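INPUT
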Amino acid sequence: MTSSNNNSGDAAKTGGQSVDDRVILIPSEQSDETVERAGSNAGKVTGESGPGFGERAADAIEGATARIGEIGRRVEFNLTYWVALIALVVTCGMGWTSSAVISGSSFRAFRVTGETMLDPEPFKMAAHNSQMIQLIEAISLQQEEGELTMAFRQAEMSFYGDLPFVYYISDSLAEIYETRSPDELFEELHARNIRYFAVPSYSRAELENSQFEPLLGNPRYVELLYELNDYRLFALRDAPVELQAETLVREDFSSSPDDLANWSLSIRPLDWLSSLTHALTNDHASIRHDPDRGFVEISRERSYRARPEIVDILQRGELGPGVSAFVIDQSDFDASLGTMQLVAEVEGDGYAEVVMTAYDRNGTQLSMEPQVLWNGVLFDGNRRTIHAQFTDLSYRILPSALGDQDRLYRIFFQLRDGGYLRLYNWEVNHFPEVEPRSSAFTDAYLSPLNNGWGQVGDDLHQREFYFTTASVDPDPADDFLPVRIRRFDSRTIAVSSPTLSTPAEFYARDRLETSTRLSSTIRPAIEMTTNLAGTGVVDMTAVIQCSSILPDVVEEAAGEGAAWSRSDENTIRVPLGTVLLTGNSRTQQLSFDTPCLPQLAWIEYATSRNTLLVRRDNTLSDIEIRDLDMSLRLLDVTGEITNVPLSIATRQVNEFRRSSSSDG
Amino acid sequence: METSNYEFAAVLLIVRSFLLLGLFILSSSAVHFIVRRLLGPQALPALAWSLSLVLGPVLMSWTLVHMLYFIPGESPALYIGVILGTFGLLGLLGLVKFITVPVSGLFQLYNSLVATPLRLAIMVGLTIGVVTTLGHLVAHQLVIPLFANDPLEYAHVSRVMADLRSVRDYPFTDPELTGGLQAAWTHPLGFPGLLILSYFVQGSTDFAGILRMITPWLLFANASIIAIVAGHNRPVAGVAAALLLVTTPYVFHLATQSHIDILRLAAFTACFASIWHLARTDSLGAAIVAALCTAAVHFTHSIGLITLPLIIPLYLLISRSSWVVIWRNIVIITAIAIGAVALRIGINLSEFGSILKDGPVAWSYEHLRVQEQREVVRLLYTTYDKLFRGVFAGWTRQDLFGWSYWIGSAALLVSAWAFRDRVQNPLQAIKDRFWRDEDPVFAAVILSGGFYAFVLLTVAADSDLVIKNARYLLTIHPFVALITARLLAMPLDKGAGLSLATPKAERSEEDAP
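OUTPUT
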């Protein structure tokens, strides 16, 4: 480009030239603005005395034109230029954003915080709540010397696991796919000492089209040990067993000509992308009942858009409160015991899924995601029976939160994208008698919660820690249930003990006597004894609920040793210090003053983060809380000391629910 | 109870991550010495530099793998010592001597842009985009553990070999050795070699740790090559191509996974760049460099064997030399590229009876319907699906490929208008065009076209080999980014006359069609 120190005349000339020579698209706003600015300058100039207005204005306009010309020459103002620039910026910007989203979602999935950023990899994997990692943990509690697990996904099993396993399509195992019956396969697996099956949620042809499907779908052969986000762990039985089944639902479409009324069709997009085209494509699906051939069928034309995977749902009943057209009503049976089994005779073409959703009596869905019972590919003209074994996962996820609600279940038969699905008959059986091979997976996690234990904090991931009944119960006579907490995540996790209460008769006695006693009491105190064992660091906090509202002066009255804090108008929290356990058992005896007469009390045990102590097996803590006793000590003005033992007061609603449903 | 202070250990790991990067820098620097010499005086200095970023680590991996085969079972210190002895001295010398190449190149480039402020602003913006993307990739790799399927399998296989200090048991036909992992693979050990090296530097195979830093380096190398090839005479196009490549969702995602495909892409891009350069000079040295790059592709993945059928036609199409020289170069490339993986080919032939192995035995059972089911699950069932969700996934899967394909093909159509009067002989037109200003976009178009022809052939043969996984289509993604960026940036680069590759090149005023 030419030099930039032109005089104004030259500049005007070149500016003019450039307008003529090049097809220039001068943004009109810019030129207006420039002229305006030049004009305002000129306006200012008029106020002063000097050369004539016209002369100055002409100079200013000339100068502005020169500047535009200059910019015009430096920057190639033309249409292609701007189109290309905008396209480039938009394309790169979208790419940049998506890569930021990708790494951001990783950080979120692993729930990385400043605190956990430098944790060892296994801790982070635990925080990630990876299903395979949790299956590995579950297997490690089960698998014995000489036994093998068959992994249907080998990556995590090999890299993060340390257990002998076989991969399901190992060439050495090829012949087990030639078996023609589940009994035959059962024998083959036993002969190889393959006892456990870690099965991920996604469809596997080798599993669905072989004898594995009827084998794993039948509690006769295998026991469903553990289930998480549709990843399942099965254990092969020692021998096939005979089991009592109660049929919860059974439908045969040849015998019920009007049954279509109970079924309906609904369509939803699979993801946000397909939701864009959803409105355009949802009229290609249909549902029909053929009583002569005995099936109900959903079908949908294959869609040829980029990602329009639409899920068609064959469902029973309508969504919404007050509607009781659910397939399975849990008041008929106890879903928290035993396993359920789905057996259905289907035919079709395409990728199909059978899913289940649990609801409460108001029609509120209890879990975010439907539970996938079966998924696989159906091939045209191949009528087959599908089997699936499952338990109600909503019991595992939020046992206490759901309380004494009976669950209602709906089963959905889905078809993804195009094809058809014919349902000839189907049934769901319940096997209440299935003897759990180990209590570690069925009841142990619930047992503490059913016996008054609770989880503190609401950001708890389902399986950051094991919460099971302890191996040792030093005093089976009392109501206290000892627990064991194993934690793999490096975050602080806290559980709350069952609530203890001052005996009712203590209050119920003569009111006058009580109030006299209270007024004559100085310094009520609590004495507690707790027995802890294992490895890790435990922070203890006592939570006391007072019988009356605390006066504001209480905080000032806090004693030297007992620095409590108020968390509520009648609740105080008393930190009890930290206990370090290094594989030993320890009995802590503590006593602390309270500002009031306690009515209810419990202890929160937090397994806290300790960066200096990491066990080789990457368990951050493995703690048993074996015993807890509390008593209230009252010192009268007369010098008389009274000890009132506190007892476990309440049971969780879960326990109540279970007893009431068994009564009914 | 064994205890450790793991936060201290984590800081130590971060330090070791940079030790691994240091090894990459040393090896690249050493290789740069040789590549620079081989490419000769006509070479673009920056091209030699960027090719070395890929060739260095791969050559290091090759050396380590062959040591672990011929002298197995020694201490890791010995292997690292030999590698340091081989690459260290030359690398240091190269660092001292040529550290100025990238620095002065960048300085000259940005200095020359001062005269055009808007272009400078665009360049700075794009550069910031590349730097921030690679930056949060590195942060991600330092913090997030290894989680994806294939990388975990590779990491475990490499861990077993690092523990044995031998690669003689690979392929692992006996799962006993790997604790159950099925790894009867025919892949050469290019990527596992790098993983083993990082385990050795780390001093422990208990966790993935510093091997997470391999993909950021390779993505950076890949972006550099593309930037320098696309940026030949057109600086904006170069940086834009690099940005489009690193921010492609699937590419970035694979990099966060520490996936082998990032190495495969980088090697293939280097191979393309070396062939493009070879066609400019046809010198013996350039042929050897091209051969080394092709060998690098062969050494990284079984599918690398399709490289020769792709690049030899490309070379024949764009070269101007006499047939004698062309065939001499092709023989050199073929011989070195095959020779580099001769050991692996021999092992595969004796182990499996073929160079490439089919899937597991169970997949051959008809009643399991493995391939059919995979096609249904992956929405590749009908011919239409195979074409539009498989072959043309670049246009239909924006969640994976971004918008480069759409923008790039639109720009390509617009540019094709410029050739409307040359329809009688388009090939000759392309060739003329190519030689007028050595435009890499034509070579990239030819290569991409060849690749798509190959993909269509496999689909026509009713095989889902290439389309079953969108990763395989990424092979040509760097060139798609190149084409898109090059065409988009054409008006922006007009009259630039500057280059990342040839700072003193003549300015060309008439490069727009």
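end of record. Confidence is low (pLDDT under 50) at residues 497-513 of chain B.
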